[in-house]
């Protein structure tokens, strides 16, 4: 049986195998390797650089020009400019003036291409905040207030994007008319449950189905709901000039983690259902399952939700989840648990998540002199996990397929 140090290293190895499987450069390169068509490239999201590099690998000089919009720290402008691609930064998770500029530049780039030019869109998570063009009557301050509320309001991603679409001229298929019938191929890295293309990046090129969504079924504050009547209700229609496909998803990452676990000799238990809902309930459930489980590797994926206090501390939902589990397994010598964002980020800061074990609580208490619950109540889990030495840093990963949770019972 592996010791705890070896078990922790195995979890990191398994997590990295999952990231490698869904890395944007690899997935896009494989999807385009038999495509002879010259294109103008448009890459949007946290994985924009890696997806753009995959297109360059596959198409070479058939990439005639391009626009790449990503998050600060997720893009090497010199590298992409050298390949003839124009690079812009938007803001994430709360949009700012850079996001509005990126929206204007996106529309201008599309409309300035020749009418018969094939457009190649490479879209990943984060696009909703990075690129925006607002309806008349909605300004930046209003948009920022909405997004700040959404981030701490506990809504699932599909509900958050329903609100975002209602305020936007380009989301929910709103970008389709700007194509002016130009042919477009759209490759997506999915960061949403069910891999619905209409939710990834808020569906810039995916027309909404059914009647306009007035969001009556969502629990929204009055000030937010008051914005919505001024927003036009018309929707873009589906277009036969737009071809959409998903090149990487959470299921791919989970399968890769399972394969690496078997390669390392573990009995693997792969949970394919999306793990969502309140992070506090999820944490209790996973800790209980691991505590009562047979020895082996346990893999989950999804995106639990967090309701933040007015002044949250350090850390994101994965760190919160990991600390919840750490509190439940404290003192045990046979369990370790990893929770991390596949994009390399988890809330503010540079941490992707955390890897905890039965000694995490003791290590953190010795340094801070407080219990995990104090930090959990303040949404300050990152401070405790920094003290216990359990934070994970990957840097930008070139992908974004939600979160992975991996437990190991020895």
From TrEMBL:
GO terms for molecular function: glycerate kinase activity. InterPro entries: GK-like_C_sf, GK_N_sf, MOFRL, MOFRL_assoc_dom, MOFRL_protein. Residues 11-209 form the MOFRL-associated domain. One of its GO terms (cellular component) is cytoplasm. Residues 298-403 form the MOFRL domain. This is Hydroxypyruvate reductase.
């Amino acid at each position: 049986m592996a010791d705890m140090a070896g078990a922790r290293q195995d979890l990191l190895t398994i997590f990295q195998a999952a990231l490698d499987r869904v890395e944007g450069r690899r997935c896009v390169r494989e999807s385009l390797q038999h495509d002879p068509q010259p294109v103008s490239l448009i890459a949007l999201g946290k994985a924009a650089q890696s997806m753009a590099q995959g297109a360059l690998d596959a198409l070479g000089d058939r990439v005639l020009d391009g626009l790449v919009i990503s998050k600060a720290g997720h893009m090497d402008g010199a590298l992409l400019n050298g390949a003839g691609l124009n690079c812009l930064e938007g803001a994430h998770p709360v949009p700012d003036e850079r996001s509005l500029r990126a929206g204007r530049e996106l529309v201008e780039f599309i409309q300035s291409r020749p009418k018969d030019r094939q457009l190649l869109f490479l879209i990943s998570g984060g696009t909703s905040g990075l690129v925006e063009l607002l309806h008349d009557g909605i300004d930046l301050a209003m948009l920022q207030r909405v997004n700040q509320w959404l981030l701490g309001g506990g809504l699932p991603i599909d509900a958050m994007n329903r609100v975002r679409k209602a305020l936007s001229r380009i989301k929910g298929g709103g970008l389709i008319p700007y194509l002016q019938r130009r042919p477009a191929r759209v490759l997506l890295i999915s960061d949403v449950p069910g891999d619905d293309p209409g939710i990834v990046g808020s569906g810039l090129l995916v027309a909404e189905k059914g009647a306009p969504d007035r969001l009556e079924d969502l629990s929204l504050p009055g000030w937010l709901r008051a914005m919505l009547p001024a927003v036009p209700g018309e929707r873009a229609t589906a277009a036969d000039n737009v071809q959409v496909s998903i090149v990487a998803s959470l299921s791919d990452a989970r399968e890769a983690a399972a394969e690496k676990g078997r390669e390392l000799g573990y009995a693997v238990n792969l949970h394919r259902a999306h793990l969502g809902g309140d992070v506090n309930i999820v944490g209790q459930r996973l800790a209980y399952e691991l505590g009562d489980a047979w020895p082996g590797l346990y893999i989950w994926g999804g995106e639990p939700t967090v309701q933040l206090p007015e002044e949250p501390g350090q850390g994101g939902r994965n760190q919160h989840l990991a600390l919840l589990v750490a509190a439940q397994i404290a003192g045990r010598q046979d369990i370790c648990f990893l929770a991390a964002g596949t994009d390399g980020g988890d809330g503010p800061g540079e941490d992707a998540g955390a890897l905890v074990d039965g000694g995490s609580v003791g290590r953190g208490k010795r340094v801070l002199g407080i219990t995990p619950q104090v930090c959990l109540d303040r949404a300050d889990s990152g401070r405790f996990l920094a003290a216990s030495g359990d934070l994970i840093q990957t840097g930008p990963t070139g992908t974004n397929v939600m979160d992975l949770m991996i437990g190991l019972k020895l």
